[in-house]
Design a protein that fits this description.
alpha/beta, Rossmann fold, 5-stranded parallel sheet, 4-stranded antiparallel sheet, globular, catalytic activity, HAD-like_sf, TPP-like, HAD_sf
Amino acid sequence: MLFASDLDETLIYSGRFLQEDCLKTSEIRLIETKDGKAIAYMTEAAIKTLKSLSQKVIFVPVTTRSIEQYQRITLFQKEIPPQYAIVSNGGNLLIDGSVDEGWNTLIREKVKKHCLPLKEILVKFREIHPEDWVTSQKMADDLFCYAIVDQDRLPQEELCRFIEWLKENHWEGYLQRRKLYFVPKVVNKKDAIEYLINHIDTDFTVAAGDSLMDVGMLKQADYSITPLHGEIARLYQKDIDKEEKIQVTSATGILASEEILKNIENLIACFQKLA
């Protein structure tokens, strides 16, 4: 079994998701820092369950984070180092921490063949005056771009039209709180997981994720789960009701991670009984 899971707001959480009641009843561990600042946490119970799961299934972290951002998570560098990790929103596959050059080359060739060049995307973006509401703009592993925005000053109508234009030119636009992503359509988590599945021995795939960037991999998997607080649960509720294989947690925030992992643990137990 392969367990592919998004990280931020699915398995790991920033301080804003640490509910007061959770802090009173659960042990919390800091698993990521940047320049001395606390970035991400997990509960000790979730870490314990994930450690156990990783010995029974092929655990694959799947994240939009860049390679550098992923490597900041100490839990996956030391305590639970996965053999495979998908980063850069599917643009890079790491095997034992090293980039799989075959997949990376294939992705870059697809971007060049099918997608409008990034410089043309940025020229179009400047037409909606990002200098008025973008505080910074960065590249992620030379594959896609994201901007930190002032949410109160977003030009909503112009931004919606820009995102539609992106789609017409084989790019996707995602607004997730303060981050606005421009991603080539061929750079996605679903295709990266499919590539990995075709290269390893696995007969059943489980996926977990919270955002619109995760929809493809959740629908592709044999069984999926999404946290109640996420975009998928909020925006795709009718689709989820029709898609029986996608489950929604009852817990929110950092405790949703525990529920997701326990759910996978129970699924494994069912498989073992049937074996």
